[in-house]
Amino acid sequence: MDITVESIVFLIFGVLTLGSALLVVTTRNLFHGALYLMASLFGVAGLFVLLAAPFLAGVQVVVYIGAIAILIIFAIMLTPQVTAMRSVRTAQWPVAVAVAVIFFALLVSVVTPLMDELGVDDFAADFTQENPPDVPADSLVRLGEQLVDPQQFMLPFEVASVLLMAALIGAVLLVWPEGTRSTPPGEAGDD
Amino acid sequence: MVPLWMYLMVAAGLFSIGLYGVLARRNAIAILMSIELMLNAVNINLVAFWRYQAPLALNGQAFAAFVFVVAAAEAAVGLALIITIYRRRQSVIAEDVDLLKW
Amino acid sequence: MDINWFHADYLPWLILLFPLVSFLVIVLFTSKNTVLSQVVGLGGIGVSWALSMVLFVKTVWAADPALGERVYGSSLDWMSLGAYTFRMGVLVDPLTAYMLLMVPLACLMIFIYSVGYMRGDAHNSRFFAYISLFSGAMLVLVLADNLLLLFIGWELMGFCSYSLIGFWAHKKTAMEAGVKAFMTTRVADMLMLVGIGYLFLEARTLNFRDILYNEEMLHHLASTDAILFGGSVAGLVGVLLVIGTIGKSAQFPLHTWLPDAMEGPTPVSAMIHAAAMVSAGVYMVVRMFPLLSAGADFHHFDYSTPMVFMGLIGAITALGAAVLALGQNDIKRILAYSTISQLGYMVAALGIGAWVAAVFHLINHAFFKALLFMASGSVIHAMEHGEHHAAEHGHGHAEHEEPDGLVMDYVAPPNDIQRMGGLLHRLPVTAITMAIGGLSLAGFPLLTAGFWSKDEIIAEAWHGMTNDPFPLFVLLALVVAAFLTAFYTARMWLLTFWGQPRTPAAEYASLGTFRKQWVVWWNKRGWNKDVKLMQEPTTARDRLSFAQMETPLIILAFFAIFAGFIGTPVYHALHDFLAPTLLEEPLKIDFNVLPMLLSMALALGGLALGWWVYAVKPLRQDEVDPTEKALGPGVWEMLQNRLYIDILYRRYLLRPVEWFSVNIVIQAIDKETIDGVLETIAEAFTWLGEAFKRFNTVVIDGVGDGLPRAVGDFGAWFRQVQSGRIQQYLLYVTLALLALGTLFLVQVR
How high is the pLDDT of residue C405? Predict the structure, then answer.
């Protein structure tokens, strides 16, 4: 593999993603954690751009960084953080480290050509390719069409919208202040 | 271009970090954040496989879009749950919510 | 797609859709508005009734003798099971059409009646939602084209009856009665489901047409040996299905839930007893009759196992319930036992192969029993009214102690026929319609519907009597039951309506229209003494409720008489209409005058005895019921306590199960085994250690201390496995996943 501009950019985004992610799960201050999460998500957005999916990168920035991360920050601020907490980690954290490492090793052994080169298996044979065909220029248009095409993704698309609506209503209902709960819909009855 | 397996490596790393976070963080919000990391790892995989193995079909992108939707819904409901739990028990520590034991 | 929904093939979908939709609408949208809920409920069943009539007329008009071969119906793919696709659909053959004449009509009448009866109840919307679901479920069951869809409707009705019997859930008796009904039918449904499953295993289909109208299939099922109990597959499946009917239609020995089901509001009783629920049980065996009789040539007195089973159960039930009905004072409970008894007739009729007669009686019974129940509801309403009034005027007290839980011989005061009397002048319309229903139940010769169908059953049993002891047994049981039926019907009606009021409550009882006109007419005839009534102020709203309650009675009274003329021994339109339903058409038996004379004698004899005992010298206040005197205190007590069958069940089935669940499942398995197994081990070892310690403190001190502690520690440690902490659980999951993943990779490499 040659050192190209692209590979350097990939390296930057990959390190940004993984490094911030590592900080997300290790930092003591949860608010900082949320900011690192935004950085990590931004790194993923960069990877999407590299993968010729600028639309998804945009969505990633808007939905994840713009909405979900902000939502998380709200939640952090709404729930007072106990600074004098004994530990931010559970008692089982060494096991968790071991599990995560083993899991990673397992995945690496499958997706990288490492085992291939050692002659153990050839799972990664397809994964070494470097030059896939170009993405058609109208792919975004076609994606949009497919999402509302009854033969393709229209039903999942509609279901997803219903799911979003249900999540919206559910979230509102869950955090409804308990004292003021005046017969929410569903429990209403003539009794 | 960068070979496919490198993207898969990044995704695997992100997923494992998320897994660690879910297993080891005490704060429920931190657990939720770790879940977001895992979902992102999945998305990287989806998009990477689409780009390298089937760039002409668009199912990979469509799937990733649906993952966004699910992630958004999950975050909304999850945070609402956390806030409700906080109201009832004055705690956001996942370990404190152990009504299901014994 | 371009479907003409009014074609007879698709119309059934609409028929069953409307009540279900009105259930959803009421539950989801209109539950806060009583009037709107009533309108939606009535609208749903009304449209459904109108469409059923269209379909019925269409079926009759077509008068297509080939309708048996080519039925109306359509189905859609429901579930694909590999090579086999399960289809769900609707089916209309003559039998279904005949049911459609009765079910929606009876339901509609019950709905109208309910509007009046439930006036003022706080949970009107819930009530209408449930009865809409109830009638929808019954229509699903009637229109289903396969056994599974039928079972779905069947179970839905089980749920509805549970929630409607326990509708007044603040009464502990009602709640317990609901649970009792649900659990009792559940026992039978379980076995029925096993039967359905086994049938599917053997036949690879549950479609009625594929099984029942398919000679090859029936032959295959009748000739294959069953896995259990010997006999054929058809026999085993048939017996299991009949057990389902025993539960649903309240046959002996699972009849005990039905009398207690009277705890529900009266329209519900009418629903359960006439239009749905118990009729569904009989309908199911009627529908499955070709399977039940497969391999038997019953025209020549060779009966299959399920048939003999049905015959015996039905005959015992018909007779036993008629005896029990003699000794009841609760007006609804008398009717409940008469229902059980009449259902016994139908089941017994199927047992001896009298298929058409059973269907005929099923429909006729539904008409007059719905009438009787709704009339009894009017009576109870009037009595409650009277109780209040009597209390206001200082006679007695309106509030009565409710028993805590079900008590066998407790009779609620407004239901007690001993406390009534003389209601004829107070509720004339109810009294006359109830008399018509009662005469139909008793089988009053030549006029009433009940006579013709009952006569047909007796005639069929008579026909087989000389050739085989089995029909003879059935005939004897049914004959005695017919006599008792006529007698207890007369007793019930005369104690309720005849003579003079026996309590202040009856004196003040009032509800209903045409009272003034009736009393004027009666006094003009000069019979009896002058009748005088307390006149009460009634509002327009009151009169509307009276009309809502009495109109259905009048309409049903019409059917209680005229529904019978389609199936007389000389004019058998019904037989010709229904016969093509079966692959092997049922035979018409020759007209024989003897059984007809016999059933006339029975009905008239029972009624005359009732008249002689109760009408010639009407029972007065504080007199003992002549039946009680005649039977003696021992027998009377026994009948009041329902032959102690309920108590027997409670003592030998419920209590042990309760004991088992409390002591074994909760205490032993849950608390002691699962929770405590580690502690128990630790304790045992602690005890052992103590023993060791005591035995030799010096030598084995360390072991004695160490072992129990180690085990105890192990228990305490191992207990953490179930910590309730989600992350710990997740860790186990991940570990398992890792182990599996590694194993998989090792295997593949």
Answer: 66
Chains interfacing with B (3 or more CB pairs < 8 Å)? A, C
Q: Is residue A154 part of a domain?
A: yes
DSSP state of C705: H
A32 lies in a domain? yes
Contacts of B29 in chain A (CB under 8 A): 30, 72, 75-76, 79
Residue A160 included in any domain? yes
Q: Using a CB-CB distance cutoff of 8 angstroms, which residues of chain C are in contact with residue B31? A: 727
Q: Is the pLDDT of residue A188 over 70?
A: no
Q: Which residues of A touch B48 (CB under 8 A)?
A: 51
Q: List, as one string, the DSSP characters of A22-61.
A: HHHHH-S-HHHHHHHHHHHHHHHHHHHHHTT-HHHHHHII
Considering only CB atoms, B21 lies closest to which of A6, A25, A131, namely A25
Q: CA-to-CA distance for C298 and C358, rounded, in angstroms?
A: 15
Q: Do A19 and A39 share a domain, yes or no?
A: yes
CA distance to A102, A114, A128, B43, B58, per residue, from B4 (Å): 22, 14, 6, 14, 18
Tell me: do A167 and A110 sit in the same domain: no
C397 or C677, which is more confident: C677
Residue that finishes a domain, picked among A81, A97, A114: A81
Per residue in C520-566, pLDDT (tens digit) is: 777 777 665 656 666 666 777 777 878 888 888 888 888 888 887 87
Domains, chain B, ordered by start: 4-94 (1.10.287.3510)
The 10s digit of each residue's pLDDT in C307-331 is 888 888 999 898 888 888 888 888 8
For A106, nearest residue in chain C (alpha carbons): C742
Is residue C158 a contact partner of residue C135, using CB atoms and an 8 Å limit? no
Query: Same domain, yes or no, for A33 and A70?
Result: yes
Q: What integer is the mean pLDDT of B85-102?
A: 78
CB A90 to CB C727 under 8 A? yes
**For residues C735 and A100, is the Cβ–Cβ distance under 8 A?**
no
Six-digit token string for A6: 């692209």
Q: Is the pLDDT of residue B102 over 60?
A: no
Give the tens place of pLDDT for each residue, C163-219.
Answer: 888 888 788 888 888 888 888 888 888 889 988 888 888 888 888 888 888 788 888
Residue C725 sits at the chain B interface (C-beta within 8 Å): yes
Neighbour subunits, C (≥3 Cβ pairs < 8 A): A, B
Which domain covers residue A112, as residue numbers?
Answer: 89-131
Q: Do C738 and A189 touch (CB under 8 A)?
A: no
* Cβ pair B15:A111 closer than 8 A: no
Q: Residues A6, A68: one domain?
A: yes
Q: How many domains does chain A have?
A: 3
Residue type at A60 in one-letter notation: Q
ipTM of the complex model: 0.91
Which chain A residue lies closest to B19 (C-alpha atoms)? Answer: A100
Partners of residue C724 in chain B, C-beta under 8 Å? 97-102
Q: Do A164 and B72 count as a contact with CB atoms less than 8 A apart?
A: yes
Residue A183 in any domain: the answer is no
B3 in contact with A at a CB cutoff of 8 Å? yes
Nearest C-alpha of chain C: how many angstroms from A55? Answer: 34
Q: What is the C-alpha separation between C695 and C709, in angstroms, rounded? A: 18
pLDDT tens-digit map of A16-67: 999 999 999 988 888 889 999 999 999 999 999 999 888 999 999 998 888 8
Gap between the Cα atoms of C257 and C266, Å rounded: 16
Q: What is the dihedral of CA C705, C708, C712, C714, to 10 degrees?
A: 100
d(CA C734, CA C289) in angstroms, rounded, equals 56
- The C-alpha of B19 sits at a distance from chain A's nearest C-alpha, in angstroms, of 6
Question: SS3 for A106?
Answer: helix
Output the domain CATH number for residue A37: 1.20.120.1200
Residues 110-129 on A with a CB inside 8 Å of C are 110, 115, 120-121
